[in-house]
Each structure stands twice: as structure tokens, then as C-alpha cells.
Amino acid sequence: MLAKSILLVSSLLPLIPAQETVLGVYIFHRHGDRTSKSFTPTTLTDLGYQQVWQSGNFYRNRYVDANASSLIYGIASNVVKNSQLSVEAPVDTVLQNSAAGFLQGLYPPVGATLGSQTLANGSSVEAPMGGYQLIPVNAVQSASSGANSENSAWLQGQSGCNNAIVSSNNYFFSDEYIQKLNSTKAFYQSILPVINGTFTAATDTFKNAYSIYDLIHVSMIHNSSIPSDDLLTNDTVYQLQTLADNHEFNLAYNTSDPIRAIAGSTLAAQIVQQLNSTIVGKSKSQVGIQFGAYASFLSFFGLAQLPAVTENFTGIVDYASSMTFELLTNATVSNTSYPSNDDISVRFLFSNGSAAANPLTAYPLFGQSSTTIPWTTFVSEMNKFAIGDQATWCSKCGNSTGVCASATSTSTSASSTATAGSSSGNGGAISKAVAGVIGAMVTLAVILGIEALIMLLGGLRLVNKKRLGGVATPETVGAAAKA
Predict the structure, then answer these.
(1) pTM exceeding the 0.90 threshold for the entire prediction
(2) CB 3.0–4.6 Å: which of 192, 196, 275, 375 could bond 344 by disulfide?
């Protein structure tokens, strides 16, 4: 009888799925509640501090604690090993402090027992503040957010990417923007009594949709009284948020102009690089954490085709929101056995608001049907829009000064060398590709010459198309950086 039972259990083993192991994670996180951008400098509030701490504690219970629901393989559960973590935040007090608060929740003080050290002379030293753990946050300048980016209403100007800034500015010349600007004039003027201490009748428009919403949103959280608050009905506040969502998503992403999503492209490269380092190092560096601004979320959402899953991915994410990329395997993992790339998958999860209070939910990326996709597929899809090296960034952005000066000269030198090699290899003949370019330029010159002659004889002159629309003003051109 016992033999039959063992035989039955053995036959069922192939039907029991292998236990999933988390090899590593990458977490991209927004800061917590802060003061309004209308009154700089912005600062992290106590509520914001609490939100990011709670989020850090949530991720501790999910990935780090000895009894975690999805314990990361090889992670130190109590006393942090800084070699296992890579934590970054732009040079910005709101984001840097949010990262520090999050880490306090991820690795809380360990107490006198674990937080003490015996010296050579036999004496014992306890770490201050009950074993408070020191975890460095690397300060970075990134395309996601520049220095003190949280003082700016719109973050694209902080990216330093010329073509991305131009692309975002182009939104203000689009039919969609102009239609929205005109159709919402009456709505915005109706709430002027609420914000006339900060905005005027001229600035209280859709052009400043985010700044207006941000001021009212922060006031509703922190101010005991708001001027003319009877105007702020639920429907009005909802419309303010919806208009701000529309405004910011269009500045962060455009299907036909990918460079506008430069923040999402650079973030994608960082995600792949961190997860790949986890695999190459066999989970010696398991956790990547970066704090950034809402624009990076929106850019990445668009690039990863997440709005097709739900239109919620076109809205500004709440304070302390986070998106997580889990590196998974069902293969055996041990000190002597680590899964191959073919046995590793990636799962994307998102929480709108602190994960401690809002569900961390899995969503499919890149139009895939499954929320878990093979690592090789993930890398292939991310590389379609990821920008992860200086030379490519400079080229895509059209930057040629500052840090891009050397990258541009190197690229030009390499191009010249390649052209020279092609010529010498063909007895000095011009390659078909170069000949085609020259031919096209000659044809263009002839056409332009004819047009110039016609205009000269007809008394015509060129006029900027945007001037004809009466909407191209210096104020509008700079709107993306000041919106």
C-alpha cells in the first residue's frame, strides 16, 4: 500500500509547478507628498516622509524580510549589505530625502544586539539611534530629472536633451493643444477666485494645467481653508486633474516622435543594465532602486505600450507611486547552480501611490498577453527604445556641446575614417550610398533654385507657417520649461 502511495505521488510531481524564485528587482519610485511647486523651494512633507517609509516597509515585507512573501535569493534580511543595493536619486532634496526615507523602511534600525560591534580591546560599541543603518544614495544627474527638478513645473527642461525639449515645445503648436486651450478657457476662469493669489486671468489657462492642479491639490491636502473653496466641487477637481493628466502626458510622450520620451528611454536602459548585472553577477547585486519624477513614469508608460492596457497609464502618478521589475526563475538556484538566460523571466508591477496602501499589480508590457515574459524578449523589446550610452544620447538629442562635445567629435572622426576606408577600397570611387546622398542634394538644390527664381519674378516672400496661425510667441515657445 505504501509503495503504491509513493508511486502515485511520484507520478504527480511533474504536474506540480516549481517554486518561483526572485533573483533580483528594479524599483522606480516617485517622491512622497511635497509642498507646491508654486512656492519654491519645494520640500518633502512629514506626510510624504511617512508615505515613502511605508512603501519601503512594504517592499521589505515582500522582498527582504526573512519571512518575505517573495524573498529575493541571497538578500541580507536584517543587516544591510550595501554591495547588494544600488540606490540613485537626482540632485534634488525632495527626491534624495524620499530615497532616504524609503531605505529606512526597507532596512530599519536593527537594535542593540545586531547594531553593535566588539573592538580589539574587548569593549563594545553600539550604532546610534537604535542601530540605524546607513545606506548611501548616489546623487546622479539624469535625463529623468536634473538638479532641483522638483522646483520646476515641467521637467523636460531639466533633461538637457535639445531635441526632446523642442519636441515637447511642439505640442504647444499642435491642433490638439490649441483646441484644448480654447475650449477650456471658461472653465479655468471660473476657478480664478480660488487661485488669484498666485495666477492671473492671463495665466489661468490650460497652458498651466499642471501648475494650477498642483497648487489646488496640495492646498486641499494641507490648507485648513482655501479661498472660494465652494467652487471646488468633486467634478471640478476631477476635471482639473484630468486636464493636467492630458497636458503632462502629451509633453512626456508622442507616438510619432519618440525623442520626446527621452526620460523613459534612459530609464529603460538603466533597468536592463541593473537586471543584467544581477544575472551576470549571479545575484550578488540584487536590488536597483531609483527615485525620479512623474515625467519618467509617463514616458516609460508610453514607450512600453501600457496605455493600451488601461488609459490610467496616461495619468500623472500619485505621490510615492512605484513600478517594479522582478527577475524570476522556476529553475533551481543554489551556490553551485544558477539559471541560464533562457530560464529567467521578468514581471512588471505598478502601484499608483504608496504600495503599502495601494495594490502592487502586474501588467503586461509591450502588447504581450502575459504579465511574465522571457528575459530575452524583455531585453529585445526594451532595446527598441532604450538609450544607454553617452554617444547615442548626444546623437539622438542633437547635443554637441558640454559632455557631448567629445562624443560628437569621436562620432565624426569615426564617420570620416569609415568614409575614407570605403573610398580607398574602391579605387577612390564614391560608394552608392554617398552617391545617392549627393544626387539627392543636387536635385534639391536645383528645385530650390527654380523656386527662388519664381518667387523673385512673382514678388513673393517666405512666411513662417507658425506665424500665420498667430500662436507662436516667445512665451509659448518656452512653455514646456515653465508650464
Answers:
(1) no
(2) 375
